[in-house]
Design goal:
- The structure holds two protein chains of two kinds.
- By secondary structure, chain A is an alpha/beta fold.
- Chain A has two domains: 130 residues, Immunoglobulin-like (Sandwich); 278 residues, Alpha/Beta hydrolase fold, catalytic domain (Rossmann fold), CATH 3.40.50.1820.
- Chain A is built from eight helices and 21 strands.
- In chain A, a hairpin with a 5-residue loop joins strand 4 and strand 5.
- Chain A is globular and about 70 Å long.
- The N terminus of chain A is likely disordered.
- In chain B, the strands form five sheets. Chain B has an eight-stranded mixed β-sheet with strand order 10-11-13-12-14-15-18-19, sandwiched between helices. A six-stranded mixed β-sheet of chain B has the order 2-9-8-4-5-7. A three-stranded antiparallel β-sheet of chain B has the order 1-3-6, with no helix packed on it.
- Chain B starts with a helix and ends with a helix.
- The C terminus of chain B is likely disordered.
- Helices cover 23% and strands 26% of the residues of chain B.
- Chain B has two domains: 129 residues, Sandwich (Immunoglobulin-like), CATH 2.60.40.2240; 280 residues, Rossmann fold, CATH 3.40.50.
- Classes of the chains: A alpha/beta, B alpha/beta.
- Chains A and B meet through helix 2, strand 1, strand 2, strand 8 and strand 9 of A and strand 1, strand 2, strand 8, strand 9 and strand 14 of B.
- Chain B: InterPro entries: AB_hydrolase_fold, Acyl-CoA_thioEstase_long-chain, BAAT_C, Thio_Ohase/aa_AcTrfase, Thio_Ohase/BAAT_N.
- Chain B: Belongs to the C/M/P thioester hydrolase family.
- Chain B: Pfam families: BAAT_C, Bile_Hydr_Trans.
- Chain B: It comes from Oreochromis niloticus (Nile tilapia).
């Protein structure tokens, strides 16, 4: 009680001191007096707040600095991010902050006390984005058109609130652009040698080190990681191997085999702006299978390999590396109480046909394997163990780098993008949702760290 | 081909920036100790090519960081983080008297930055760089809205920041060349000010009637801004350069309608017939046109037209009556206007009147007349046509490139600070003198 009284007295002393200096100032500055007077007549003392984001146009993997100024002191505010996906869905994130004694907030150093994330998270507004309430189920944020940016609107709201709450006073806002392509990067559609792909070239004369960029069994042609690689100075070729209208055969099975990936690798080697001796391969999920197949095939010597949450083999492949229909073998599928499916057990090394497992010990280049320890789609940890052991036995431990992230799921993608713990896999004959795993904060940390290390790995093995 | 040099990596961060943002140019993976040239190339809207370059030596890790390492020689030397932009100059063989000004501010300025083997000084077009990147420099932040204004007979453009507002407002005036110059207003809107660029010399009205606008034109602009639902009507400032300063002071002091929260006057003067209309003020300068001098390159020097600073009070805007903070920006090598002499006289007048606490003067040795937003090339002279003299003249603006560029950077920072403090924040009066 005594302490509280002391504090209150102290507070009043401080206020009086401040008022005194204000009064003496008023006496000297007619301009200030007049202007302040006007403000008093019109509204409360609070001035127009200012929200800034720097840089306001940034690449997806760049950190930006968000600051709010000219707010009331020690005041609760909410910072909110909103954007529309290409499909038209609204994604949102928000966080609760308290302004400091100068009436400012700085997301690079301040702590969120609630909302989509807590703690000091400079990029939390981006990786914690979630579909707005009332959205369709099982959404995943993936950019198809990488030549345009995501427009993310960041706003500052009064008090601690959430986007779904109706009445909220918007104090200030800023629009940011998030790009997958740096200026000068060239996007080239590839439909030759039966390859369905997109090549991204950095600006400049080259020759450039290059990457072959492979995704998973969701299929289609995903360009965004390649676009970012090119924005970082690497030529990068994304190829589709199933689920694309320009590929032969039905879209739901993989009708291309080893020769397809070899052609893709060859295309990079033959390209006049690519340094043929500096080509790496990156695969996520099922993409790891062709990644390892290329590396263990005679005649191809990638300079490095990056494998994210993938298996050493597959139950689905025939001799040429073409697949049977994925859904034909469901004995290892596991369903949760919502009916969402985890494919994890399908890729447990013991469940993989021995003949499908690649002889990883024959790999002659550095290999980085990235594990999301909460991966519910692939038995990443177990497969990483197999690869690590195979290389160790062959005296090649020095070639192996393992990154393992607790709490991260299957889809370890470029940073500052949301984690999908589950998403819609297919709609026919009925809707099926697949579990990817991962919890937002640790998954975001994993993406940020993994991306940095991926780029360093590429610099080391492709550029030096 | 030397394998190692093929892998030289050049990066610029951020690759998309606002015109006044700094960037970091980094070369990595070069041979330690190797000699390299970093060069910037830009083709401006009227098709002319501009270039800048610096000679560097890679350190023991094979790295060059332009923000920390010195350029040994080139269009700039020493540690100059933004030298590749402010030292841009027309490529050899270009027309004389060029000045870089962006008309379309909705697209970025694109600059190609490349790194070359060795210390090159010319013939870059025939060399193959080791690496290159493209950088975009924007006047407009995303979400800033560009709104042409024709209300009340105005020829103006309003730039609104993104967000709900209300925003403090700004009237933006340029000088005797006329036209509707938008880039500074666009940039100021990107910093949170609802900014209206005004054409007051070659407006639609003037082009159609042949008559100059009167004082009410500026008051109309003020009213339009003040009444805009997203503008905070009680927080409006005015910024003027060159002849725009004359208008700014005139309105700040004498207008019954315009009540400014702050005024910024760059490279201008308070010397003007106090009761004069725009036309009469222009006429006053014309009368003194005989005082024009020419240097050895036949470049016109107009700074003497208003000298000596008159003692007759009817020929000087009465700055003693100013009621809002005033920031004067002066280039001490201004060959076009006697900004420095005027600033001294303004200071004296305000000291006598007792309102000098409102005045802040930024004075830059060896800076010229055209003190503009930073990191754009300095033009010591250029071809110029005022609205009165219908023929182009090679006009000497003054300034030495290095000092002028530093002045632009410093002045812009302080202008933004001044505007924020007076239009946005809790005004702490001690901050005025800390500029």
């Amino acid at each position: 009680m005594f302490r509280a009284h002391m504090s209150v007295t102290r507070i009043w002393q401080l206020i009086e001191k401040r008022m005194m200096s204000c009064i003496s100032v008023h006496g000297k500055l007619p301009g200030l007096q007049r202007a302040v007077g006007e403000v008093r007549r019109k509204s409360s003392f609070r001035q127009s707040p200012l929200l800034t984001a720097t840089p306001v146009r940034a690449l997806i993997d760049e950190q930006i600095s968000i600051k709010g100024r000219f707010l009331s002191q020690n005041y609760p505010v909410t910072v909110c991010a909103q954007m529309h996906s290409e499909e038209g869905d609204l994604w949102e994130a928000f966080a609760h902050y308290t302004t400091n004694a100068s009436g400012s907030i700085n997301l690079t150093s301040d702590h969120s006390v609630g909302g989509s994330y807590v703690g000091c998270e400079p990029m939390g507004l981006f990786w914690a984005l979630e579909p707005a309430l009332g959205s369709r189920e099982g959404l995943r944020l993936r950019k198809r058109n990488v030549e345009t940016p995501y427009m993310v609107n960041i706003s500052l709201l009064e008090g601690h609130t959430s986007p779904s709450e109706g009445q909220r006073t918007e104090l200030a806002a800023v629009t940011t652009e998030r790009w997958y392509m740096a200026p000068g990067v060239r996007r080239i559609e590839i439909r030759q040698n039966n390859i369905v792909g997109t090549l991204f070239l950095p600006p400049g004369p080259g020759p450039f080190p290059a990457m072959l960029d492979l995704w998973g069994m969701v299929g289609g042609l995903l360009e965004y990681r390649s676009a970012l690689f090119a924005s970082r100075g690497f030529a990068s070729l994304s190829v589709a191997y199933m689920g694309h209208k320009d590929l032969p055969g039905p879209q739901h099975i993989m009708s291309v085999g080893d020769s397809y990936f070899k052609s893709a690798f060859q295309l990079l080697q033959d390209h006049c702006q690519v340094d043929a001796d500096r080509i790496g391969v990156i695969g996520l999920s099922y993409g790891v299978v062709p990644t390892l197949r290329i590396a263990t095939t005679i005649g191809f010597k990638p300079s490095c390999l990056i494998c994210i949450n993938g298996a050493v083999g597959s139950p689905l492949l025939d001799e040429d590396g073409k697949s049977k229909m994925f859904e034909s073998d469901q004995k290892h599928w596991e369903f949760d109480d919502r009916g969402y499916v985890s494919f994890r057990n399908v890729s447990l090394p013991d469940n993989l046909p021995p003949e499908s497992k690649r002889k990883v010990e024959n790999i002659t280049c550095p290999l980085m394997y990235i594990v999301g320890e909460d991966d519910l789609c692939t038995a990443s940890t177990e497969n990483a163990d197999v690869i690590e052991e195979a290389l160790r036995s062959a005296g090649k431990s020095h070639q192996f780098t393992r990154l393992s992230y607790p709490g991260a799921g299957h889809l370890i993608e470029p940073p500052y993008t949301p984690c999908s713990r589950a998403s819609l896999w297919k709609t026919k004959p009925e809707k099926l949702f697949t579990l990817w795993g991962g919890h937002p904060a640790p998954h975001a940390a994993a993406q940020e760290d993994a991306w940095k290390r991926i780029l360093e790995f590429m610099e080391t093995h492709l550029r030096r | 081909m030397d394998r190692k040099q093929c892998c030289v990596k050049l990066s610029v961060q951020p690759s998309r920036g606002l015109m006044d943002e700094k960037f970091i140019v980094l070369v990595q993976n070069a041979l330690p100790g190797s000699q390299l040239t970093i060069r910037a190339l830009h083709q401006c809207e009227d098709g002319h090519s501009w270039e800048a370059f610096g000679h560097y030596t890679a350190d023991t890790t094979g790295t060059i960081d332009v923000s920390e390492d010195p350029s040994i020689r080139g269009t700039y030397s020493g540690v100059e983080q933004m030298g590749l932009l402010w030292s841009l100059r027309p490529i050899p063989g270009s027309k004389p008297g060029l000045r870089m000004r962006k008309k379309n501010i909705q697209t970025p300025m694109e600059v190609t930055i490349s790194v070359y083997q060795g210390h090159q000084t010319e013939g870059f077009a025939d060399l193959v760089p080791l690496s290159g990147v493209v950088v975009e420099r924007w006047y407009m932040a995303p979400g800033v809205r560009r709104i042409p204004v024709t209300e009340g007979g105005l020829t103006a453009t309003l730039f609104l920041p993104s967000g709900p507002g209300p925003f403090p407002g700004l009237l933006d005036l340029w000088g005797g060349g006329g036209q509707l110059v938008e880039y500074r207003a666009a940039l100021l809107a990107s910093h949170g000010f609802a900014s209206m660029a005004i054409d007051y010399l070659t407006s639609k009205f003037t082009m159609e009637t042949g008559k100059m606008v009167d004082n009410q034109y500026f008051e109309t602009a003020y009213r339009v801004l003040q009444q805009h639902p997203q503008v905070c009507g009680s927080k409006i400032a005015m910024i003027g350069l060159s002849f725009g300063t004359s208008m700014t002071l005139k309105m700040a002091i004498y207008s019954e309608v315009i009540k400014l929260s702050a005024a910024v006057c760059i490279s201008g003067s308070h010397v003007q017939p106090v009761e004069g209309s725009v036309e009469e003020i222009m006429g006053f300068f014309q009368k003194n046109a005989g005082k024009t001098r020419f240097n050895e390159k036949n470049e016109a020097i107009w700074r003497d037209l208003l000298l000596p600073i008159p003692t007759d009070p009817s020929l000087k805007a009465d700055v003693g009556r100013l009621q809002c903070p005033l920031l004067l920006v002066v280039g001490e090598d201004d060959q076009n206007w006697p900004a420095q002499e005027s600033a001294l006289d303004i200071k004296e007048m305000m000291a006598r009147a007792g309102n000098s606490h409102l005045l802040t003067v930024l004075s830059y040795p060896n800076a010229g007349h055209l003190i503009e937003p930073p990191y754009t090339p300095h033009a010591r002279s250029s071809t110029f046509k005022t609205v009165e003299i219908q023929e182009k003249v090679m006009c000497l603006w003054g300034g030495q490139t290095v000092e002028h560029s530093r002045a632009q950077e410093d002045a812009w920072k302080k202008i933004l600070f001044f505007l924020r403090e007076n239009l946005y924040g809790d005004r702490n009066p001690t901050l005025f003198s800390h500029l």
